[in-house]
Amino acid sequence: MPPFATAWRAAALVTTLGLAMHAAWANEAVIRKNLAERLPSLPRIDEVRPTPMPGLFEVRLGTDILYTDAKGDFLIQGMLIDTKARVNLTEERLDKLTAIAFDALPLKDAFTTVRGNGQRKLAVFADPNCGFCKRFERDLAKLDNVTVYTFLYPVLGKDSEAKARAIWCAADRSKVWNDWMQRGVTPPEPKSSASCDTSALERNLAFGQKYRISGTPTTILANGQRIPGAIGLDRLEPLLAQAGAAGQ
User: Fold this and answer.
1) For the chain, which terminal residue's Cβ has fewer other Cβ atoms within 10 angstroms, N or C?
2) What is 3-97's CATH topology?
3) What residue stretches are annotated with the Thioredoxin-like fold domain (predicted)?
């Protein structure tokens, strides 16, 4: 290809990209202006950006996501799903916005279970009355060479709160937790609740609210990846391997 042709194509590409960026900036300005004027009670807009759907823009308010057209004439609240890829783009975006670095986890508010050499690490937010959590715990018990940090996350009612307090106040939290979750042995009432500080449970709930942990179990891998729900070992094992490789 002649040098002038290569240079022409490069210049055309730069021009095209420049026009696209200018259009995006123009749309953002219009969207911000119109939404602010028409919806004065709307929280401050942190970010406006185009979505993969032509003509649709994401409006980010903190960690809340809305969608609008290029002029801000319409506002949509809901999930954007890529039907070809079968991906919930809204959930994917929210997971990125609320990603939790493993070293940012308040591990002092969790109890630890170590199996084998404990080299692989994961954290689990779980409710003691969550059926999916119980199923997940039975799978976790089959893992070797793992350290599991369990954050008691009682979101399913008063009984969950009572059981979480009993587990947290136990001398051997890991044993009492596993006895209950895997074998149905009710956690014993603490001998002296006055001497047991359960403020960690309140901090766990506040932490979960901040990072949009809306269901249990929710697992955080060493690379920060968040896994909602109970997944089987066939999926968990390769994810643990990937997380370990990313941390090396």
Assistant:
1) C
2) Nuclear Transport Factor 2; Chain: A, (3.10.450)
3) 115-240
